[in-house]
Amino acid sequence: MIGVDVTLADLPLRADLVGKSPYGAPQLDVPVRANTNENPYPPSDALVADLAAAVAAAAAALNRYPDRDAVQLREQLADYLSRSTGIELCSANVWAANGSNEILLQLLQAFAGPGRSALGFEPSYSMHPIIASGTRTEWVSCPRRADFGVDVQAAAELVAQHQPDVLFITSPNNPTGGSLPLQDIRTLVRSAPGIVIVDEAYAEFSDRPSAIGLIDQFPSRLVVVRTMSKAFAFAGGRLGYLAAAPAVVDALLLVRLPYHLSALTQAAASAALRHADDTLGSVAHLVAERRRVRESLVGSGFHVVDSDANFLLFGRFHDAEAAWRRYLDAGVLLRDIGIDGYLRATIGIDAENDVLLDVSSRLFQTVWQTVGGSS
Ligand SMILES: Cc1ncc(COP(=O)(O)O)c(C=O)c1O
Q1: Which residues line ligand 1 (CB under 6 A)?
Q2: CA-based, 20 to 30 A from 142: which of 42, 74, 280, 317?
Q3: What is the reported pLDDT for 24?
Q4: What is the pTM of this model?
């Protein structure tokens, strides 16, 4: 290997990146992987066959660049959103990229950056401040309440005070799981001077209406970001998208890299969308499992935060880091997101959830672990 003697400190790194930590959910091969909120059910055989055929067809033309604007895929995404929200959207309302992280990056490249700021209610998705930092956007962190909800009146005042160029609203929120009602989102959009990004990565697991229904009221400012990484069981395919006024898409064309979405990704995502009804059939079961796991954890004495997503934040652990290690030793990989006393567990297949519950009830008996308290 060459270059091994050079460390980060030897590089002419941007000063504002010195000392920062990269995103780093551990990728460990353990029996129960419950730390990155994927859908635990693999694609159906029919989808795998359809996708393989579509990718083979795309492969035969790989000497050519892909459709730069991914029009066919955006039409399919618009159809899916129209069907699932009841709001009529067309391809011009939709933009797609390699995961919703890339969508968020493009949004900050277009609407934030040096001299501009973005505000979020934390704890929330850790990539929001990381993408802000990467685009040299000042990050303003507003704390959530002790129960991880957002005090909307206080939040609206903070937003009015800070005047962020971009406001992040994550609903359902990761890592806490709760969502904001539409009227609260409306209040926050009214208080915000700039672009409001509603990150709905987990929308399919929630029965609340999508903020897509508000775009018509705030067409120059509201953007709703979605992903195929969660309910769609397509995390490995890397496909995120947004719904917004067509002018927002025009703005992103100014910053996206040409041909950012490969022909293979477009073909694979199109195939996954053709099987959407089948794939999304797992959502109701995962929601039922979320309820079962929640009740059982509460029954064992844990405090479990209400969740509209495919994960649960639970505790309270005397030492969350030590508890995380104990779960790992028992073959269960949870997420320690740095919230004092809490860990996050993704809902898995039934047998995985059984293991989580079994390990949890055994660990609860050990006094070092929790101070208990159910809610
Ligand atoms: C709230 C939220 N937004 C966006 C993402 C990014 O997902 P992806 O880039 O896989 O679409 C995640 C992933 O965990 C998330 O939790």
Answers
A1: 37, 99-101, 125, 170, 174, 199, 201, 227, 229, 235, 240
A2: 317
A3: 78
A4: 0.96
